[in-house]
Design goal:
This protein has 267 residues and is an alpha/beta fold. The protein is built from eleven helices and 13 strands. Helices cover 38% and strands 17% of the residues. Strand 1 and strand 2 form a beta hairpin. The termini are far apart. It comes from Iphiclides podalirius (scarce swallowtail).
Amino acid sequence: MPRRSRWMHLVAGVVAGVTLGVFLKLCLRTSTRTSIQACSDAAKLYAEPDPLATIGLRADETVENSNRTLVFVGVMTAEQYLDSRARAVYETWGQDLPGRIAFFSSEVSRAPGLPLVPLRFVDDSYPPQKKSFLMLLYMYEKYGDRFEWFMRADDDVYVRGDKLGEFLRSVDSRKPQFIGQAGRGTAAERDALALEYNENFCMGGPGVLISRETLRRVAPHVKYCLKHLYTTHEDVELGRCVAKFAGVSCTWSYDVSSLPFHLCMHV
């Protein structure tokens, strides 16, 4: 065999050996019992958690047979607030809901003991349009047929679960509903919000209620809405998306904006 050919085979062998060594180092690890675990097993540690287990919902629970499927509350939060605001919410009014609650944060977020959904490809940057819209999409895909109502909330509000349940049971969730504290922005920014004369939006701070029919109409289009943002106002853009695809604007409700329904909570 010519000398050059032998050198080429030698180099190829070295490269192959190094590549195999790196692969084995990454994909195999020795446990405390000196057993070998493959990459696929390690990857399971970071797999998406079961959506039903995350919120403590049994597979057989439905809106027909459970008194805790009236509303699903999605709380938007951030990694830096998981052990303060989010945990305070979960340990207080989060325990008194006629439904279930989960916290939505960036994909790197971890919080043992909290029903947390780290949204893929989402960070904690502000404004949180992407987090808000992808939270709604997650709600629809994982829980769309399991709850009558869906609520978008921030991590600095307090919700009276008894009043919330009383109010929601008086409204038909089979119809497109978009309920909250209606707003049109300040006079100075009204042009920037690009609202038509008959349009408004539900202000995000007090919380926003969405019937399952509204969610059914809107959720498949959230990626379109994300690509057609007019402003940096997350609640305005959500309102515009709901108006376009569900055909409804924010319905102002005194119960939603008054103290019996929610209190601002500073943590």
